[in-house]
Amino acid sequence: MTSDVRALVDTVRDGTAPNRARLHAARSALWALEHEHEWTDLDLKLARVMVSRWLDGVTPSSSWEYDLVEVWRTDRLARDAHGASLSDPQRLLVARLLYDCGQYAAAIPFFEQAVRSTQISAEMVLLAAYNFEHLGRQTGDAGDVAAALELLDDDRFRTFPHAEQMLAESLHLRGHLYLMQDQLAGRHAGGFSQLGTDLLRQAADLDPSYASCFTSSYAERGDYVRSISASLEVLRDRPFGLLAPYEATIVALEVLFYLSYGLLSVGEYERARLCLASFIEAVDRLEDDEARDHARLFMVKLELKRRFASDFSTSELAGYYAEIRALAFSSPLSEPVAAETRRYERVLEFLMALVGLRDRLAGSPSTDDSGSDLLFERARALIRTLVDERPSLLASPVGAVIEVVNGEASSPTLDGLEEFDAVCRRLVTPPAGLAGILRQIADEHDVVGVWIDSEGLAASVQDRLTLPGRSIIVHSPGQDSLPTNVQADGAADFRDLLIAGCALSLAKRFLIDDEYIFGLTPCTQSPAVKFQLARYDIEEIRTL
Amino acid sequence: MADRHGWDRLIRDVEERVLSAFSTHSFRAAASVSLAHGFLREALNSCSSVSADLEWLAFVVPPFDRDNWWIVSPRDEESATALEVLAPAAAAARIARRCRDLRAATTEVRPGAAATVSLSDFAGWSLADGIVQVVGLYVNVSITPDRPGLEGALLLGLGHEAGADLITALEDGVEHAGGCVRDRLRLAYARDATPVRVIASLDDAFQEHLGRARQALGLREFLVQLEGGSLQPVDHCLPPAAVSLSEAATATDAESGPDASDIHKAFEDALGALRPPGRKTVIALRVAASPSASLRTPVGDWLGWCEFRYGLASLRAGRAVLTTANDPTTLNAELARYARGAAHSARGLVVLVPGHFEAGARLLLEQWRETFDVSCAIYDPPN
Questions:
Q1: Is there a contact between B67 and A267 if contact means CB atoms under 8 Å apart?
Q2: At A505, is the pLDDT very low, low, confident or very high (cuts 50, 70, 90)?
Q3: Does A424 map to a domain?
Q4: What would the mean pLDDT of A474-482 be, rounded to a whole number?
Q5: Which residues contact A301 (CB under 8 A, 6 or more apart)?
Q6: Mutation site for B-interface testing, chosen from A179, A195, A223, A360 by largest number of B Cβ within 10 Å
Q7: Residue A488 placed within a domain
Q8: What CA–CA distance (Å, rounded) separates B130 from B43?
Q9: Helix-strand-coil split of chain B, %, nearest 5
């Protein structure tokens, strides 16, 4: 590779260079490489993937994924036919690229063979373990965690150069893995989380780069008080002062970030806000946009958590929505945070529709159904999202609808609710059983609806449609609703009220739940992730 | 279509239902306590400091307060302590059952030996009106086969209705569990053998419930000991150098009301000036015109904070007993107990008096001047 091409590649990789210059340099470099006789088709594909990765966020990637898939497929076909088509070093390069693209499952076979070699570096073993770790977070498969732990044997790491640093990193990763194992194992965890915290503490003692991993490990276990306490202790003692100044600043900021998370989780909103504001100000100075966006997400979370949804105006909610939509998490390691951001989008879309409809109904009832149609669609989207992605929110029942029918109880008949079975239980009862069922289910469900189809039935149960201290959504033709209840005007209105209520219950659960979102540590340049980042260079291709 | 009022009702109802449910059962096994101020933090850590000896630790949590979450810190996995989070209504029966089980287990496992069941610790606190009302309660359970029952000391305080319910229920529960609990408690207090540790903040409702509990349990003496240890409130731990955190600390300090040292100095001055040799001193300290209002500061409970610092300083020196009274009956009973000199050698009794009871307290204290040196130190926090 000529020095001219080298210079072009350096420009591509220079994050401080103007985007146009980087794009131009990329085109020129690839054009030059295509005209190098020694460069094979495979080499060029790998080069294109690298360039695309370096330009991630600058330009939309178009073909690089296909290039990588093609390399992967070619190798697989070749292996199936007559052994490996790529050398081990080439395979490791492909593994790193797949890892960097977030293609963790596809990367496994490329890592697999290489990590068994005695020649492999500690960095590559760690990257292979991180590959399993990230895959485990995606799939929730404890087998991936076990596979990662298997790679991280202390004795093995003591033999590598820079043994102490490698050992610290090994402890760090194992700490996170045990914490994850604890989450995956649930009730049968048996002390994994404590082990995880202990290992992270040891890692932080050896290398203060991991200080925030240790302090936040308590929060990951749900022990926010200890997380706050540990964060304050670290900020007071400043063990990270041993690091280089820039790294020390980053670690201090990370601890501050997790301190704010802990404070937010225990309801110390003002302190949390102050910490987040300090964090945002500092990372703005460091021009770390992704870290800033982490904190902006938490600022929105704070506002939504601390207030009743019904107290928000639509313009306030729209402001939060715009804020959320403006966030960007481009790193594959931040994908869990990006996913959480999308969930907040769904919640805000629903709340805007809900509050918007309520406000439009001020004064006189509206006959315009567009608001309720929108609300129903938003509620449906939110329910689907949270049921799929946050099943823990369904730990207690959400809604129930009781159909009052003549004669013996039979199957529910009310249309349009089948798809909401996960959040809305359906019951059928004769009039005589209504009071008993209401008493039975009221304590467990956040939303209760009673559907009565005929005027005769409605008259017979009118005096039983009460629940102390709460309202029931009622369809009761020919009857005036009790002041404490919410009267639906027809089947569509009943369904809208019921589903909106269920969606609101889930939204509120989501907002007050402090589920730990494991993502990349908020600062992209964190010394804590120094072994998590895949590194590669175009020159490497021709030396393989 | 349902009208606006219907939608309003639905929205508010669902939100309150969710929040209420959140307070009585957690979505997951983690949880917390609001760090409304260092006071509660102290309570939590006091629990932690004894938890290694515990077999069981129950946290009683109040109905949800919209501005504060509760969460109970989970115990370490290596600890044998079992953690339970209980709603007030369910607490008493569970506590009673647990005490009974512990006693049975001990007798069975170590027949004939002087066995001690691990400390059964009950800590409860309540968050209401955006503040921490209460309290840690520690029940020392020391059971031997020949003397089953609670030999330790028990007291609790809880604010508002949750506290009242719990106290009533706990009385019944303990009675059923121990059989001779009240006798033991009286005995323990008569011997002055057992410390009672209560961490309390003050308000009217708390005082009322505390008084009721004390009477119900037949305790002759009740020492309120506010423990400090090495723990500091959150804002005092913030490191000045850490990325603008000093600004945060300053801001919260400014909001938190008067410096506790002021109130402490008032107390010290009064105590120093009014204590002739061989005489006991009573100081009534008006802590706020309206305690419940003063508690609603942006950072929580400055009154509790003052009390914490105040009580800590005086009790460390072994000089004073800190108590509270918000009605004549309670104050009279406090003074009578103190006059009898039951069980402690403190040279001063400090009664924190809410503003509305100040005049009544002054009148009553006048009647005790032959027995005590009396001082009424007035301290009004700025709004």
A1: yes
A2: very high
A3: yes
A4: 82
A5: A264, A344, A511
A6: A223
A7: yes
A8: 17
A9: 45, 15, 40
Which residue, among B154, B30, B123, has the nearest Cα to A218 in the 3D structure? B30
Question: How do the domains of chain B map onto residue ranges?
Answer: 26-217, 256-378
- Contact call for B245 and A221, based on CB within 8 A: no
Does the pLDDT value for residue A516 go beyond 80? Answer: no
Q: Each residue of A211-244: pLDDT tens digit?
A: 999 999 988 876 676 787 788 888 878 899 889 9
Please give the structure tokens belonging to residue A500: 């909106």
A417 lies in a domain?
Answer: yes
Per residue in A393-402, pLDDT tens? 887 889 999 9
Q: Is A113 helix (H, G, I), strand (E, B) or coil?
A: helix
Q: What is the mean pLDDT of residues A469-480?
A: 85
Mutate to test the interface with B, among A188, A201, A250, A310 (most CBs of B within 10 A): A310
B33·A225 Cβ contact <8 A: yes
Domain residues for the domain of A483 are 398-492
pLDDT reported for residue A451: 92
Is the CB of B351 inside 8 Å of chain A's CB atoms? Answer: no
Are A197 and A214 a contacting pair, CB within 8 Å? yes
pLDDT in tens, A44-57: 888 888 887 787 76
State how far residue B26 is from chain A, nearest Cα, in angstroms.
9
Q: What percent of chain A has pLDDT over 90?
A: 26
Per CB-CB distance under 8 Å, the chain B contacts of A509 are 18, 22, 27
Structure confidence at residue A214 (pLDDT): 94
Burial A422-449 (b: 16+ CB within 10 A, else e): bbbbbbbbbbebbeebbeebbeebbbbb
ipTM score here? 0.75
- CA dihedral in degrees (A252, A256, A257, A262; nearest 10)? 140
Domain count, chain A: 1
C-alpha distance from A418 to closest chain B C-alpha (Å): 22
Length of chain A measured in residues? 544
Instruction: Please check the confidence at residue B4 and state whether its pLDDT lies above 60.
Output: yes
Question: CATH: 3.30.200, 3.40.50, 3.30.930, 1.20.120. Which one for B256-378?
Answer: 3.40.50
Of residues A393 and B184, more confidence is placed in A393
B34 Cβ contact partners less than 8 Å away, ≥ 6 residues apart = A266, A267, A268, B40, B68, B69, B70, B127, B132
Question: Does the distance separating the beta carbons of B244 and A282 come in below 8 Å?
Answer: yes
| Closest residue by Cα to residue B18 from A203, A181, A512 | A512
pLDDT band (50, 70, 90) for residue B166: very low
| Cα–Cα dist B264/B314, whole Å | 9
Beta-carbon contacts of A185 under 8 Å, excluding residues fewer than 6 positions away, are: A142, A192
Judge: B32–A225 Cβ closer than 8 Å, yes or no: yes
For residue B243, list chain A residues with Cβ-Cβ distance below 8 A.
249, 252-253, 256, 278-279, 282
Task: Give the dihedral sign, CA A361/A362/A366/A371.
Answer: negative
CA–CA separation, A287 vs A289, rounded Å?
A: 6
